[in-house]
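Internal QA ticket QA-208
Title: Verify multi-chain structure generation after dependency bump
Assignee: T.L.

Test input:
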Amino acid sequence: MPIPKDFMKPARLSAKERAFLQLQEWIIDGTLQPLEKLNDAELATALGVSRTPVREALQLLNAQGFVEMHPGVATQVTAVNNADVEKILPVLAALQALAAEEVSQKGVTASFIQQLRAKNAEFALAIESQNFYLALKLDDELHTLIIQEAENEYIANPVSNFQAHVRRLFFHNSIILTAQSVVEHEKLIASLEAQDAETAHAITKQNWVRATEEYASRTK
Amino acid sequence: MPIPKDFMKPARLSAKERAFLQLQEWIIDGTLQPLEKLNDAELATALGVSRTPVREALQLLNAQGFVEMHPGVATQVTAVNNADVEKILPVLAALQALAAEEVSQKGVTASFIQQLRAKNAEFALAIESQNFYLALKLDDELHTLIIQEAENEYIANPVSNFQAHVRRLFFHNSIILTAQSVVEHEKLIASLEAQDAETAHAITKQNWVRATEEYASRTK
DNA sequence: TTCTTATATATTGCATACATTATAAACTAC
DNA sequence: GTAGTTTATAATGTATGCAATATATAAGAA
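Actual output:
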C-alpha cells in the first residue's frame, strides 16, 4: 500500500516550526497583544524549548512584520494600526486579481469551477449564520484555490503573509464581511469559467476595495 | 553639530546581518551558483563568525526564496529558472503599478518630479552606454522612489525582495533592458505630475510586461 | 547474487554558556 | 541641586558542544 508522502510530513515539526506557528497564532488572535514585550528566555521556558529555536522563530516573524526587534533593548509584537486595512487590502486585491487573471487566461476545468462554487456555498452559509471568522477563513480558502491554480509562488507567498495580517486585523475588529461578497464570488467564478480575464481581474479587485471602503465609511 | 541618526546606523552591523548581506550578494551575482551546497560550518569559517549567525542568515534567505533547506541532509542555493521571469515581472509590475496609482492620487511635489526626471536621465545614459547592470540598478531606484512616496510597507517589502530576484535573473542573462524604458518612464512621470492615476498604473504595468514579452520572444 | 540489516559518517537542529550592548540607577564633582 | 560619570542590570547577540536525523556504505543472511 503506497502511503502518500505528504501524509508523513506533518507528523514531525521541528521546535523552530512549532514555536513559529504557536507565536504567530498567539499574535494573530491577540493572546500576545500589540506592543507586548517578547522575552525570548521567557518564551523558551513557556514553550518547553531553548532560546535558539525561539529566536529563530522570532526572526521569521520579524521578517513577516509581526515582531519588532530592537537589538540589546527589547523584542516586541508590532502595533496594530486599524488604518493598515487601507494599506493591505489594495495590495491583497491586486495580487489576487493578478492570480485570477492568469488562471482565467490559462483556462479552467469543470471540477475546479465546482470546487469554487462549493467553497462559495460554505462561505454564504457562514455569512448567513454570522460566523464571521469562519467566513473569513473560507474566503481565504476560496482565493487560495485560485492562487494555487495560478502556480506562481511569487504571488502565493506574499498573499499568505497578507492573509495572516488580515486575520489579525479581524481579531482587532478592523474588518467586516458582508453578503455582498457571496455575489461577487459568483461573478468571479463565472468570469473564470468564461475565461474572461479582464472581468475576473476587475471583480477580484472590487471584492476587496469594497471592503476597504466599508472600513473607511465606518471609521468616519 | 547635529549628526544625522541614519549616518550612525550602518557603522555597526551585527554578524547575522553581515552574513545575510554577503550571502545574498554572492547568490545574486553568481559567486554562489544555483544548487550549490551551503555547509554552514564552512561558511562560518569563511565569514569569520560562528555557525549561529550564519544559520540565522540562511533561514532568512530561505524565507526569501534564495535558499532551500533539507533538514539533516543539506542546505543549498535555489535553482534559477529563467522562465521565472514570466512569473516575477507581472507581480512586480502589479505592485509598482499600484504604488504609482496611489502616489498619483495623493498628488506629488515639484521637487519629487524633478528627482524622478534626474534619475531617468541617469538611466538613459546607462542604457546608452550599454551599462545594463547600472541601468537595472537605476531603474530599481526610480521605482523605489515612487514606492517610498506611496508609504506602504506592504508594497515596499515584497517589491524589494522581487528586485533582488530580478537582479539574480539579470546575472544569469535572463533579462534585458532597452531604450524603450526611458520613454515609458517619462510618460509615467508625466502622468504622476498630472495626477492621472489610471495612466500611471497602465504605463508602469506596460513597462514590465513589455520586458516580459521581450524575454518570451527571445527564448522562442 | 540480492535483499535486508547494521553501522559509520556527515549534516542539520537544539541547548547552554559567554560576550556585548543599551538602559537605568547610583554616585561623585561642581 | 544639577550635571556628568560610573556602575549595575537586563536584554539580545554569539560561540560552542552535544543530540538527532538522514544517507551511504558495508556486512550478513537467504
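Spot checks passed. Residues 1-9 of chain B have pLDDT under 50 and may be disordered.
Status: verified.
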